[in-house]
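can u pls check wat happens w/ fe (ii) ion
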Amino acid sequence: MSLTTLGLELPSDPRWVDIAGMNIGDILIDHAYCEQKAASSCISLIVQYPEKARLVEVLTPVVAEEWGHFQRVLKELRKRNIPLGRQRKDEYVNQLQTILRKPSDRHEQLMEKLLLNALIEARSAERFKLLSEHLNDEGLKKFYRELMISEAGHYRNFIELAEEYLPKEVVRRRWKELLEAEAGIMRNLEVRSDRFH
Ligand SMILES: [Fe+2]
Ligand SMILES: [Fe+2]
């Protein structure tokens, strides 16, 4: 899996995975919340768009998967005697929120939400790939490799759903804009050892 497969325009700063590896406890805590937010974001979509049968069908198992990831991260924390602690400020997602449009049309709102989720999934898959390649802990490497495959699948789910409900060319145009904006955010985001993004 490469950046091109995920659509991303800018690779993660290579310093991140090195410092993340040295501070795996904080990374696991931040990661746990990413999984929690991924599950709750899918639940919100199902609650807000119950009439969209395909969306409900595709996202219901994703909720279960994300919650399963959350449980597995908790297990990794427990193994290391690290308490979950409080949620940290998610600068990456906060900044992504600011580039979203706030259209009055419900379908366009849906596209913004689906593409936001697709972006986060793609970036997460890229970061899991880095962790799976660079960590020293064999168990965690395997865990992150599995998650990389799972999140790359979710990225495709969100893009496919956007294309299901909106014209493909509209989705592609907006996706391209969002990818550029995401790259801009990544370029300026502080590289931190206690953040997953
Ligand atoms: Fe996940
Ligand atoms: Fe995911």
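The chain has eight helices and no strands.
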